[in-house]
Amino acid sequence: MGRTSGPQGACKPFNILANRWFLQLIKARALSRPDKSRWCNKLPQAILRKDIAAGRIGMKIRIFFVVALCASGLAAFERTPETATQGIRVIELEGARNFRDIGGYETADGRTVKWGQVYRSDKLSDLTQADYKVLDDIDLETIVDFRSDAERADAQTKWGNDDDPDILNLSIGDNAADWSSTLSRQLRSGNFTKDEITATFIDMYRAIPIDAAGQYKIMFERLADGYNRPLLMHCTAGKDRTGVGTALILSALGVPRTTIMDDFLLTNEVADVDRALYFVARGFGERAGHEIDPESLRPLVGVDAAYLETTFETIESEYGSVNAYLTEALGVTPDIRTQLQNALLE
Question: Which domain holds residue 270?
């Protein structure tokens, strides 16, 4: 399948549907949640095949597919079906550009992260009523907001559904943070180079796992309690503070580092960074009073492997390993880690 549905080879279901057995799709059961058992008859099989292959579903409902596959066609269905739960990674919303399900990734021991339990996103302040209808089907219990107080004041989240999730404000990167003040100064002036912005983001990814350990610890405490799931974490762009949070969760679940990096880099495609650069540069240029080279803003709008590599290098330098960091800094003991894995893997 395409990159819009997740990195190639990251989880078994995507591999299955991408190879020749995809042509022998027997039947698909469409569910609003992986744990619900209601049928959806809105998708003819021909359209279902087409949309799965494209990696996106052009509908305003959230659906999961329980797909029955077999190696020898319809005649073999009763004897040797192989069943896989298939989710849609990128959730298309009008008011958020980077809303994703982190399910479907395969762990080192062969299990798979459950769909529909943990989500990541950019800011939610621009969500439309149509978006809230989609999110109502997801049935979020908890939203973890990593934005600073100033960011929240500038772009308030006003939840548009009757059954509001619990919104937990865990600010990372207020004005006291060196990288935050440096970045603000650079963007206000408009006088910066691509290398200077990159250096600021490297500083951010070096600081976040140490300075924000308390915030990520609370995130894990909430996540470990089943009553708080499904859980969504987000910041302004849904890529830096949220990207680190996602990497830590996937690490705790035993997802390989290469898959974690692929998920991290998926922002560049989902958020259409190449196209967004020109709009962002125009906005900053108008505020600065002079033209800004769009390419100089690539480190701000997108992500780079060096960012997350810096976070992991910092953790391993300070604690020896990611597992030690999870235990010592975030309180994710082996018992809690096993609890999370039992709840979030299948």
Answer: 113-344
pLDDT reading at 5 higher than 50 = no
pLDDT tens profile 128-149: 999 998 898 889 999 999 999 9
- 204: pLDDT strictly greater than 50: yes
Half-sphere exposure of 216 (CA within 13 A, CB side): 25
Cβ pair 190, 284 in contact under 8 A: yes
Q: Is the distance from CB of 194 to CB of 296 less than 8 angstroms?
A: yes
Does one domain contain both 149 and 245?
yes
Q: DSSP for 199-238?
A: HHHHHHHHHHHHHTHHHHHHHHHHHHSGGG-SEEEE-SSS
The two tokens of residue 319 are 């604690």
pTM for this predicted structure = 0.78
Could you tell me if 277 and 313 lie in one domain?
yes
42 and 169 together in one domain:
no
